[in-house]
Amino acid sequence: MALQSARDVPLLIRSANASSERRITPSWSVAQLRAKLEPITGVPPSCQRLTLRLPGHDEVVIEAQDEEVTQVGHWNLQAYAEIHVRQEAFVSAVGGGMAVENMSDVWSLSFELLPRDTTRTGARARSDGAILLNGLTDFNSLCIAALAANVTFNIGWLVFLFLIVTDLRPPSALTNLTDTSAVPKYTMPASTYESLPSSVLAWKKAQKLGRFDPSLPEHEAQKIQNLWDEVGTRGIAPGRRCRLGDEDTRRGTVAYVGEVEEIPGKGPWIGVELDEPVGKNDGSVGEKRYFSCGARRGVFVRPERVEIGDWGILIDEEDDDLEEL
54: which residues sit within 8 A by CB, 6+ positions away? Predict the structure, then answer.
């Protein structure tokens, strides 16, 4: 009979800079959980203080003596419980100075000094041997505090003290690790991109696609000629009544036939003065006027959208209906 692994449990992961719902596998080790939480919260595994909040229960610290073996399921995970990830910094006094992990402004930090043989788990649990320190910013102050507390240590290039550093600033004062607006962005110069041998641009050049197609001018000229042929075939000319597409409510009179430089795309555009104010302009594009009409009664379309015919003026037809009532 095959063994079945425990189902994933949906949990709410919360930290100073992130909050999201994640599915956690109970068979993960605590070390695996810490590694997976780093890209979510931005807190390195060595500096994470994990606590589990279950409904109706006190907050429980997630830590173990051997975190490579202890599974997360040991804490009886429940759906939509909360795991809070707080950042702690560990400082070790080494020889003539201090090695600091993730230490910010020292005046905003709380220090705890522990004996050399204290394990990291014990340090997180704040064992009875801890000495609360404040405002210690140099190695000499640490040594004096250690001597006063009868902490045994060996001077030399050995780690002899455990110092826990906790940032006391509120979340609003901490660095926002998810805000990328202030991060300098690299913009590649156009000349550099054009010189790259394996870019999309280089591939288009090699395949002669798009603007690199030697027959492109011929194709463009043929498209323009097809548009002019459409104008002749449909009988489009200034003064002719028309409607646009199959929309019977958009009737009007052709007011312009020709190029419009301000609109992308070469070839003829048809300017139509509409009966109703359902258009885009007043016959002008930008600062150039092509015909005159009321506000929102002008529109420019391609020839294939114009249907020439004896279309009556909409407002006149409505007046006739009212007279019959």
Answer: 60, 76, 78, 81
Length of the chain: 325
Query: What sign does the CA torsion over 120, 121, 123, 128 have?
Result: negative
Between CA 67 and CA 221 the distance in angstroms is 72
- The number of beta carbons lying within 10 Å of the beta carbon of residue 282 is 16
Closest CA to 171 of 312, 19, 57, 52: 19
Contact (Cβ atoms closer than 8 angstroms) between residue 30 and residue 37: no
Core vs surface per residue 202-216: b (16+ CB within 10 A) or e: eeeeeeeeeeeeeee
Beta bridge partners of 12: 21, 82
Supply the DSSP symbol for 145: H
Give the ranges where 208-290 is alpha helix by DSSP (H).
216-234
Helix/strand/coil for 95: coil
Alpha carbon distance 67, 122 (integer Å): 13
Cβ neighbours, 10 Å, residue 113: 22
Distance, in Å, from the CA atom of 5 to the CA atom of 175, rounded to the nearest integer, reads 39
pLDDT of 152 reads: 39
Q: With DSSP H G I counted as helix, E B as strand and the rest as coil, what are the percentages for the chain, rounded to 5?
A: 30, 25, 45
Least confident of 33-47, 159-173, 231-245: 159-173
pLDDT at 109 over 80: no
Cβ–Cβ contacts within 10 Å for residue 292, how many?
A: 12
